[in-house]
Amino acid sequence: MDKASVYPDMWVDPGDDPRNTDGRSPDGEAETQLEFIRDYRSTLRMKCEGLDAEQLAMRSVPPSMMSLLGLLRHMVEVERDWCNWITADETRPSLYGGLDAAFSTSGADADMLARTWSDLAAEQATTDAEVAKYEDLGTRLGESQIAVRELQIHRIEEYARHCGHADLLRECIDGRTGQ
């Protein structure tokens, strides 16, 4: 991935940034929440672009077990967990051994990486579809009776925190910094 040309410290030029809304903000609380979730998801993808499976699996901030691949796999588990919170269906089991177990991967290949990206897209779509069933953000869901609004804010918080981790991990891998 080439660096941006307008601002060299950025990942993409402002005109090419998929998160750029040309200054138009979304209408309403639910739409604003969804835009933040989409933008943080895009940011996490951007921080991983241009790296191969081995680089993504690199634990670049010892003694932490965290890697970019671990973050991706963790977010798969988190999305699945959130969906389990809000559905009455039988709990779907972990894909990688649990939220923190997702970080235990120390090596990777292209197939594992492709599966991880596919799993992440599938889990995001499942959670999004479940949340989309509820127009009233005050609706309480699942055994915990979490409000849709609280779940959405929690999703934003989780992605935002891990995008910060991704910034540091990526910088340690190849020096890349920016938006």
From TrEMBL:
Q: Where are the transmembrane segments?
A: none
The UniProt entry, under Pfam families, shows: MST
User: Disordered: where is this region?
Assistant: 1-30
Q: Where is the composition biased (Basic and acidic residues)?
A: 16-27
Superkingdom of this protein's organism: Bacteria
What is the protein's given name? DinB family protein
What is the originating organism of this protein?
Answer: Brevibacterium aurantiacum
